[in-house]
Write a structure and sequence with these properties.
By secondary structure, this protein is mostly beta strands. It is about 10% helix and about 55% strand. It is built from one helix and eight strands; from the N terminus they run H-E-E-E-E-E-E-E-E. Strands 1-2-3-4-5-6-7-8 form an eight-stranded antiparallel β-barrel. The chain is elongated.
Length: about 210
């Protein structure tokens, strides 16, 4: 009888300890940061430098004079036809809105075994969405671009709209994929029949440093 009472007493103690441990695990706030990634989100004043590299796909070239003789052969492409090296800077005004600048180097090969080069330099504005560790910035860039093809040089306006998806690895680094649609016109005011509007899509891989 004495042994039975001792055994029942020990079982009651074990049960009490198990129930107490279960309550502590349910109330323990230490596990919350593992499910809440808001501490990784940008705050006003945060900055980021983005380095990107990838492929260029010219999709359309519109000539003012469709019957123009000796059209440049860089209107004839087959993808992939070139590449892009891209450097940009973001400054966050809010956790979502950012402004910044960008510069890139684009080269495009032609079926005639020549190359066209573009060096765009512009300002950018954007809005960034968040989902767990993922960040989705949308951006619009406007600026000026240097064009070079054989002995032809041009300097003029460009505009580009982009969308990206990044994985926030930690507070300092994120990695992602970008896609952008760019408009690169060449307007020759002295000879408007030679005007060309070029539309280019680029697809790049990126790394961002946050500070």
């Amino acid at each position: 009888m004495h042994r039975t009472k001792v055994l029942v007493f020990l079982l009651l103690i074990c049960l009490t300890v198990l129930l107490y441990s279960q309550e502590q695990e349910e109330e323990d706030p230490i596990t919350e940061p593992d499910r809440d990634y808001s501490y990784l989100r940008s705050v006003p004043g945060d900055q980021a430098i983005i380095i990107s590299a990838g492929t260029i796909f010219p999709v359309l070239f519109v000539y003012s004079d469709q019957d123009m003789e000796n059209k440049p052969d860089w209107g004839n492409f087959k993808p992939p036809v070139g590449g892009n090296l891209y450097l940009s800077y973001n400054y966050f005004l809010t956790p979502n809105f950012f402004v910044g600048g960008e510069v890139s180097f684009i080269f495009i090969s032609t079926l005639g075994l020549n190359s066209a080069y573009f060096v765009p330099l512009g300002a950018r504005i954007g809005y960034q969405f968040y989902l767990w560790r993922f960040e989705f910035p949308l951006s619009l860039s406007i600026g000026m671009a240097w064009h070079r093809y054989l002995d032809f040089g041009y300097y003029g306006f460009y505009a580009k709209a982009g969308a990206s998806a990044y994985f926030r690895f930690n507070e300092d680094w994120s990695f992602g994929l970008n896609s952008a649609f760019g408009w690169y016109p060449e307007w020759i005011f002295e000879e408007p029949k030679k005007n060309v509007d070029g539309f280019i899509v680029d697809l790049t891989l990126s790394v961002r440093y946050h500070f």
